[in-house]
Each structure stands twice: as C-alpha cells, then as structure tokens.
C-alpha cells in the first residue's frame, strides 16, 4: 500500500558493508538527519528527505511497492531482483553508480580440483544466493549446470558435498582462500548504486530526486574517475558493458573498414584493476587502455 507522502524517502542498509558509506554520502550531499527513537528512520532536518534503515535485500521490494522513491543498494541485489521479478512487473532502475562497495559475483572452485575452465561446470552443481544472475550467465555461455540456491554460507557448500562450485560475491578473495577456493571467472562487477522506484513521481518529488542526484554527483568528485578505451567485436558489447563499472552509458564508435568491430569509451568509477581488464579481454576486447580523468564538467 502506498501512503501519500510529501517527503522523499531513501532506503539505506541499516548495518553492513554499505551502511556507513551510504549515510556519509548523503551527508556529503548536504543532508542532515535526526534519528527516530527506534533507529529505523532518520528524519531529514534541512530538506524534505527521510532515510529508512533496512536490510539490503528489502530495498528493491520497497522501491517496487513505492514505499521509498530511492534506495542505495549493491548492483548485484538490484540485478538479481530484475532477473527474478515476475514478468510484467516494473523493476527499479539504476540511477547512479556510487563508486563504493565494489565487489564481483564470481564462479569459484576448489583449489587443486579438476575444474579449471567454466565449460567443465557442464552437468555439475553450483551453489549460489544469486540464481537469476547465475542462470543468465550459464545460458549465455551455453553451460548446463544445476543451481543450488543457498541464502548464506555459500562458500562451505563444496566442502559439505552440496555443490561442485560456487557463485558468490568476492572482494579481496580472502574468504575464498580461507575455504580453499579460487575464482574461475567474474560474471558481474558490482558496486553500490542509487536505485529509483519505477513508479512515476509528482513534480515536487521529481524535483527533489533531481536535486539529490545532482548533489550526489557533485559530491563524487572526478577523483577516482577513469576513462576506459577498448576495441571489441560488436557482438560482445552487451557482455562487455555488464562488466564495466560505468558511470554512464559508454560511447560506441564504428571503426573504418571493420564493420563487425567497435571502439568503446567508458567513463568508469572505482577501481579498474588487472582482473577487470583480463575479464574484458576474455570477452574479445583488445587494445585496452585506462586513463585518469583530470577534470570533468557535466
Ligand atoms: P543485510 O543484513 O542488509 O541483508 P548482507 O549481509 O546481505 O546485509 P553485506 O554483507 O553487508 O550484506 O553486503 C552488502 C553489499 O555489499 C553486497 O550486496 C555487495 O553489493 C557489497 N559487497 C562488497 N564487497 C562484498 C563482499 N566481499 N562480500 C559480500 N558483499 C560485498
Ligand atoms: Mg542482505
């Protein structure tokens, strides 16, 4: 049920990896808050914008039902929700990539085991909390594997004999290493994003959303911005775009005399490490170049 509200509501993770940085980003965007007694709400003191503190898994649902207009959540959670939503339902959209909470959803296998390339997963079992994203990647790559859905502690599934591989979030890789696992391939590069409800807003709220987005973008300086340039087969564009930590849609240019190829220029936020470049190369990208961005004006 949607209650008519004048004030904008932003859903933020209550505690966890994104909680603190999400709130400090809103503060850097000029918002100040006073906490409710039950600490589930932060009332905006200087703008008509309140914060709802929730579990990250609840954020896409809150946006879909219209209880919140905006949310800060990992792209992984948003993308999974989009793939598993009932057909015909409008999913929340990613408004801004926020440049923190970076991680990747990766396939991982047991150290010293028989599996060395993803194709060997055909006919095997893969444990994950992200069945939608995994099923999509397996279909694109023509691999038929059984998906074992687990809500947590995915990394111990191989040792328990529940699965032959896992598909889980990785940042440093320390959790994988502690469980004698290593990464095979990343299927999604993720970071925290500002997501928007699919419901249309009245003009006053729409104006608040635009204002908040502009302030957040202003607060994220060009610090950490990178321009990634590469060439690739045109057919690989969608798969490549999914792996880019992009701030906005990449520019795609035709190449003289090479109708099946494109040049891509993408403004990226956060780290673009060797692993990123290797994952892109595996998709057919070549001539990869990462440039620091000195100055930007939108
Ligand atoms: P909640 O109690 O809100 O449900 P959670 O345990 O599901 O929390 P966290 O572990 O706090 O979630 O992770 C939140 C988000 O942080 C993830 O969805 C992901 O986008 C990002 N993240 C960054 N690095 C990692 C990592 N190494 N492992 C898991 N998530 C990571
Ligand atoms: Mg969660």
UniProtKB/TrEMBL annotation:
<keyword id="KW-0808">Transferase</keyword>
<keyword id="KW-0028">Amino-acid biosynthesis</keyword>
<comment type="similarity">
    <text>Belongs to the ATP phosphoribosyltransferase family. Long subfamily.</text>
</comment>
<dbReference type="GO" id="GO:0000105">
    <property type="term" value="P:L-histidine biosynthetic process"/>
</dbReference>
<dbReference type="InterPro" id="IPR015867">
    <property type="entry name" value="N-reg_PII/ATP_PRibTrfase_C"/>
</dbReference>
<dbReference type="InterPro" id="IPR018198">
    <property type="entry name" value="ATP_PRibTrfase_CS"/>
</dbReference>
<dbReference type="InterPro" id="IPR013820">
    <property type="entry name" value="ATP_PRibTrfase_cat"/>
</dbReference>
<dbReference type="InterPro" id="IPR011322">
    <property type="entry name" value="N-reg_PII-like_a/b"/>
</dbReference>
<comment type="function">
    <text>Catalyzes the condensation of ATP and 5-phosphoribose 1-diphosphate to form N'-(5'-phosphoribosyl)-ATP (PR-ATP). Has a crucial role in the pathway because the rate of histidine biosynthesis seems to be controlled primarily by regulation of HisG enzymatic activity.</text>
</comment>
<keyword id="KW-0547">Nucleotide-binding</keyword>
<dbReference type="GO" id="GO:0005524">
    <property type="term" value="F:ATP binding"/>
</dbReference>
<dbReference type="GO" id="GO:0003879">
    <property type="term" value="F:ATP phosphoribosyltransferase activity"/>
</dbReference>
<feature type="domain" description="Histidine biosynthesis HisG C-terminal">
    <location>
        <begin position="226"/>
        <end position="294"/>
    </location>
</feature>
<keyword id="KW-0963">Cytoplasm</keyword>
<protein>
    <recommendedName>
        <fullName>ATP phosphoribosyltransferase</fullName>
        <ecNumber>2.4.2.17</ecNumber>
    </recommendedName>
</protein>
<dbReference type="GO" id="GO:0000287">
    <property type="term" value="F:magnesium ion binding"/>
</dbReference>
<dbReference type="InterPro" id="IPR013115">
    <property type="entry name" value="HisG_C"/>
</dbReference>
<dbReference type="Pfam" id="PF08029">
    <property type="entry name" value="HisG_C"/>
</dbReference>
<keyword id="KW-0460">Magnesium</keyword>
<dbReference type="GO" id="GO:0005737">
    <property type="term" value="C:cytoplasm"/>
</dbReference>
<feature type="domain" description="ATP phosphoribosyltransferase catalytic">
    <location>
        <begin position="55"/>
        <end position="218"/>
    </location>
</feature>
<dbReference type="InterPro" id="IPR020621">
    <property type="entry name" value="ATP-PRT_HisG_long"/>
</dbReference>
<keyword id="KW-0067">ATP-binding</keyword>
<keyword id="KW-0479">Metal-binding</keyword>
<dbReference type="Pfam" id="PF01634">
    <property type="entry name" value="HisG"/>
</dbReference>
<keyword id="KW-0328">Glycosyltransferase</keyword>
<keyword id="KW-0368">Histidine biosynthesis</keyword>
<comment type="pathway">
    <text>Amino-acid biosynthesis; L-histidine biosynthesis; L-histidine from 5-phospho-alpha-D-ribose 1-diphosphate: step 1/9.</text>
</comment>
<dbReference type="InterPro" id="IPR001348">
    <property type="entry name" value="ATP_PRibTrfase_HisG"/>
</dbReference>
């Amino acid at each position: 049920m949607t209650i008519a509200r004048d004030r904008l509501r932003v859903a933020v993770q209550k505690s966890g990896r994104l909680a603190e940085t999400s709130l400090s980003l809103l503060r850097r965007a000029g918002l100040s808050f006073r906490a409710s007694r039950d600490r589930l709400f932060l009332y905006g003191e200087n703008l008509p914008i309140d914060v709802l503190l929730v579990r990250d898994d609840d954020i896409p649902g809150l946006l879909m039902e219209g209880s919140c207009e905006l949310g800060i959540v990992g792209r992984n959670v948003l993308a999974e929700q989009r793939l598993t939503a009932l057909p015909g339902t409008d999913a929340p959209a990613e408004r801004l990539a926020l440049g923190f909470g970076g991680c990747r959803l990766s396939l991982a296998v047991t150290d010293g085991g028989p599996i060395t390339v993803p194709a060997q997963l055909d006919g095997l079992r893969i444990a994950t909390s992200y069945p939608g994203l995994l099923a999509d990647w397996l279909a694109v790559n023509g691999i038929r594997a059984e998906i074992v859905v687990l809500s947590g502690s995915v990394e111990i599934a191989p040792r328990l004999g529940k699965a032959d591989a896992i598909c889980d979030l990785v940042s440093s890789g320390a959790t994988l290493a502690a469980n004698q696992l290593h990464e095979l391939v990343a299927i999604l590069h993720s970071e925290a994003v500002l997501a928007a409800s699919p419901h249309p807003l009245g003009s006053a709220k729409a104006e608040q959303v635009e204002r908040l987005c502009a302030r957040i973008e202003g607060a994220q300086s060009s610090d950490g911005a990178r321009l990634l340039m590469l060439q690739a087969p045109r057919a690989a564009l969608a798969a490549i775009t999914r792996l880019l930590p992009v701030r906005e849609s990449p520019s795609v240019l035709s190449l003289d005399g090479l109708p099946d190829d494109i040049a891509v220029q993408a403004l990226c936020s956060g780290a673009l490490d060797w692993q990123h470049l290797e994952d892109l190369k595996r998709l057919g990208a070549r001539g990869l170049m990462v440039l620091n961005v000195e100055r930007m004006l939108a």
